[in-house]
Amino acid sequence: MADVVVLGQIGRDLVLRVAELPAAGGSVAASERRELLGGKGANQAVALAQLGVPVVLVGVVGDDAPGRDVLAQAAADGIDVSGVVARPGTPTALLLDLVEDGGRRRLVEDVPPGALLTPADVAAAGGTVAGCQVLSLQLQQPGAAVRAALERASRTALVVADGAPEDEATRDAVLGRADVIRADAAEIELLVGRRLSGPDDARDAAAQLLSAGPRMVALAVGEPGDLVAWRAGPAPGAAAGAGEVDPAWADGEVLVPRLGGSTVDPTGAGDAWVAGLVAALRGRGGPEEAAWLGAAAAASTVAHAGGRPSLDPAALAEAIARERDRHGVRIPSGRG
Amino acid sequence: MADVVVLGQIGRDLVLRVAELPAAGGSVAASERRELLGGKGANQAVALAQLGVPVVLVGVVGDDAPGRDVLAQAAADGIDVSGVVARPGTPTALLLDLVEDGGRRRLVEDVPPGALLTPADVAAAGGTVAGCQVLSLQLQQPGAAVRAALERASRTALVVADGAPEDEATRDAVLGRADVIRADAAEIELLVGRRLSGPDDARDAAAQLLSAGPRMVALAVGEPGDLVAWRAGPAPGAAAGAGEVDPAWADGEVLVPRLGGSTVDPTGAGDAWVAGLVAALRGRGGPEEAAWLGAAAAASTVAHAGGRPSLDPAALAEAIARERDRHGVRIPSGRG
């Protein structure tokens, strides 16, 4: 039985750093080039593998040389790629990450329609999805594929959803089944139907989402950081004994600040954040611990060019202890 | 014996079209992606092959999968790649061509130092260089490699140089041996040591260059087009009988306008221009005919995204006849 299944994009990341993009008509020499396994699904799976979590990736590549290259890289990263479809006639998605000095980043994405998951792809990976303990869904995938995965997830699986559903049917299905939802500013707007005015408004949005079904929401609210809120009950997901009340899961919230130094490249921050959260919850950590591990994983990832994470669990634990201390946050008893 | 040897960059071209580049922090979906054999040397060699000219390419790729891919593509294009070095430990050069709607183009180039020609590479291709009838040199390559090629060229070879030499020794060697020099505005400045103020000034620059050695100069002077000037004497290069006076090679000049419709992507214009010129001169065409074929090849190439040419000799001949007529240019007797 799979521990964690990540359902999301797989692609080639081309990272080019330049001092500054030229004006139209101009040219510039790149100061760095990296060509990597990328895509939000793959980046999250890489992060989970680096955190020691057995992970199965479900997604689509092309039946081409770049597709074979990225799958080989995923396998070398310790990811189970048995759920990946190599689609004939579709080029593997390409994600260009143009990074100027100072952390100014532009993405140019070429994700062919064939490189997105279909309900049939999810059905083909059916046993994997049905048997997993944690199902992590990236909502940039088509709504029909997301709904197919939600239908197949076992009743006891912990379901984590990242992003905004592409249509109302998918939003209802996600809110009705997901245990945890993470969203950035633009995605929150799509989830709750209005624009947030600030952290206080984020509290209202979090309450609105929690009342719709999820046990935990994590909202990226910009400069202040991430507002994470949860409601009382047993720890969600199969890892907890059914009905057992966990003191870490009393009603609560925490505003976790952006950690680390200056941002070289924001790409991959959200994927690393979700991976940290999943790894912590799977390890029976509480919601606050999950929020801090997410924030630390994101901070590590934005400190270099490219969305591929490079996580060291011991270094993350140290960073969390240091930052919690610096920000005057209490360390929940019994956890760390 | 090789007909034409092109010495210049070989690389991977990644062409991404977008409606508009996003602001920093943003992302955009590409409307088109093309991944091609590219680099100025390869583009010129492709153009020559399309014009029916046997061509040998001398340049450097990495000893990697992309390098093997682009060499296979060059061979499929009919280019002799026996003069290409596959350098271990060097990634194949990558040229990103970001094209916005309206023909606004930005290049991001990653040309590792190892992907440039050395004198030893030129020596390794020595027989090819020494035996060719036409040597086409791209002056973006290191000066030492350019000088090594000039030293090896036979006395009767037609030598065409494109660009600006990187140092004074190379400039002296180029001016002392090249039969034809082509340069754009920035390159002219480096060649003659001052900035051009307009087409009249370009005439002075052309006269200055012609007095320094070359028989023919082609200067891209911006909106008006290309100023092409030549001085009297036998047709240059091995194609002409030594000492025989060719009436097409009396002192002369022509300002060839920019041909064709609107520009989708200016990448590759200069490479196609030089290929047209080389093909015409090799076919015993005069300087004016060479200028028109260059301009028509360039116009064809800027009409699509990416620097790779797609030349049809019959279509170019038709375009030239039509445009000469439209611009009221006399068709030189006995040619056309």
From TrEMBL, chains A, B:
Keyword annotations: Kinase, Transferase
InterPro entries listed in its UniProt record: Carboh/pur_kinase_PfkB_CS (IPR002173), PfkB_dom (IPR011611), Ribo/fructo_kinase (IPR002139), Ribokinase-like (IPR029056)
EC number(s) given by UniProt: 2.7.1.15
CC per GO annotation: cytosol
First-level EC class: transferase
GO MF terms held by the record: ribokinase activity
Family (UniProt): Belongs to the carbohydrate kinase PfkB family.
Name of the protein this chain belongs to: Sugar kinase, ribokinase
